[in-house]
Design goal:
The protein has 189 residues and is mainly α. The protein is 65% helix and 0% strand. Helix 8 crosses helix 9 and helix 9 runs antiparallel to helix 10. The radius of gyration is 18 Å and the shape is globular.
Length: 189
């Protein structure tokens, strides 16, 4: 058997079988119509399409899924969930993969999870992304003292072009109830 094929079909470790079972239940009725991929505004930036991701979950290809960047590119816009003809909670599956990657993954997964959390916290706090406060949140959540230095050249260029603004008060009060309801619906509160 070809080594590439063997790696593609490798089963998930037993520790991850429980999470995989829940994910399989979430996407088990997927009929591979592709509506999720066609509805996704970020599909072009993903290395695996959402439709292919659901099939990989069904086959237990967790290592390959966690190595991809697909679920990190999900902006939780709920378009796939809203348009799914089977009514599958696909956005919840992507969120579960992000949580799993944060637990199972290495440094890159932790940094991706920190960026995602900082982004969502900033939107909740300000009603939109305010780049300077979001990056501050990201650096604090990533807990890597060298990370801010890697962004220094980009920050200086942006500052020189007038693209960096001090954070303002924002309109987070408008979105807080929405975030609270989403957490309640996803069972996270």
């Amino acid at each position: 058997m070809n080594q590439a094929v063997r790696e593609t079909w490798s089963p998930a470790p037993e520790a991850d079988q429980m999470v995989l079972k829940e994910l399989r239940e979430t996407v088990g009725a997927c009929m591979q119509c592709g509506t999720c991929t066609a509805s996704c505004p970020n599909w072009h930036a993903m290395d695996i399409t959402p439709r292919a991701m659901w099939r990989m979950i069904q086959f237990g290809m967790l290592d390959q899924i966690l190595a991809s960047k697909t679920f990190w590119m999900c902006s939780a816009c709920y378009m796939c969930t809203l348009r799914c003809p089977r009514g599958l909670k696909l956005t919840s599956a992507m969120a579960a993969l992000k949580r799993l990657a944060g637990i199972e993954g290495g440094g890159n997964a932790r940094k991706n999870l920190a960026f995602y959390a900082a982004f969502m916290d900033d939107v909740e706090a300000h009603g939109r992304v305010q780049e300077t406060s979001m990056m501050q949140r990201y650096f604090m959540k990533a807990r890597d003292p060298m990370l801010p230095l890697s962004y220094l050249p980009l920050g200086v260029r942006m500052l020189g072009k007038g693209k960096v603004h001090l954070p303002g008060r924002g309109r987070g009060d408008v979105l807080r109830p929405l975030f609270a309801k989403a957490r309640e619906m996803e069972g996270l509160s």
